[in-house]
Design a protein that fits this description.
- This protein is of the alpha+beta class and about 210 residues long.
- About 55% of the residues lie in helices and about 5% in strands.
- The protein has nine helices and four strands.
- It is globular and about 45 Å long.
- The two termini are about 35 Å apart.
- Bound molecules: glutathione.
- Glutathione binds next to loops.
Length: about 210
């Protein structure tokens, strides 16, 4: 199996996390941000992540990929899901994206490994999120707006090894978002969130991205 991904992409990290939890080796290709051809040739659209299965069939939805990987051998995402956790995950993105998006191109990530790929990202994302320098200049207030969300998550976390006490798809929803949020220097995770983040990242053998 080969996963086509961007290193910064939290949806891609869902799939990498599922594979790591299963101790399953995924071949990985990081696509340059301006390399639409690779994506188009696989799935006829500009979309990441793409999982190409061993039979050559590509998959396009990250949660379908997670379910597929979890179904190989004995399932491990067996815990119950909680609506509050998916509601949290869906709503927090509006608060994290203005902080994380303008930082990713500064982290030396492989998808921005050429100046053309880097600028391709800036030009496209600027349309959606606004000017990156102006966004970064608002970091303090954005962090202030995000903190109550992290405090809410702190109250939801039941164990450092599983958000609901037993590993479930909710962990796949939450950990990749925390990995993204952790690129924001000066953002302090509340105690249970920090324990959960550190425990889970170490369990799957991933270092956090750098923070800026
Ligand atoms: N529902 C899809 C959404 C995938 C998605 O939105 N991917 C984004 C990257 S995170 C994308 O391909 N954006 C196009 C682009 O960056 O040009 C999934 O969960 O896999």
């Amino acid at each position: 199996m080969r996963l086509y991904l961007f290193e910064h992409c939290s949806l891609c990290f869902r799939v990498r996390m599922a594979a790591a939890l299963k101790r399953l080796h995924l071949q990985e290709t990081v696509v340059l941000d301006d390399d639409s051809e690779t994506m188009m040739s696989l799935v006829r659209k500009r979309r990441i992540p793409i999982l190409v299965k061993d039979d050559g069939q590509p998959m396009l939805e990250s949660m379908d990929m997670v379910a597929y990987i979890d179904g190989l051998g004995g399932r491990i995402l067996t815990g119950l899901q909680r609506a509050e956790v998916s509601v949290w995950a869906d709503s927090v993105i509006a608060k994290t994206a203005p902080l994380t998006m303008p930082r990713y191109p500064l982290l030396g990530l492989p998808e921005f490994g050429t100046i053309a790929a880097h600028d391709h990202c800036i030009v496209r994302k600027r349309e959606k999120y606004g000017d990156f320098i102006e966004l970064r200049a608002k970091s303090r207030e954005q962090i202030g707006a995000l903190m109550p969300e992290l405090e809410s998550l702190d109250r939801l976390i039941e164990s450092p090894t599983a958000v609901n006490g037993e590993l479930s798809v909710d962990d796949i929803r939450v950990l990749p978002l925390l990995r993204s949020a952790a690129v924001v220097k000066g953002l302090r995770f509340p105690q249970k969130v920090r324990n959960y983040f550190e425990t889970m990242m170490s369990r799957i053998g991933y270092q956090p991205l750098s923070a800026i």
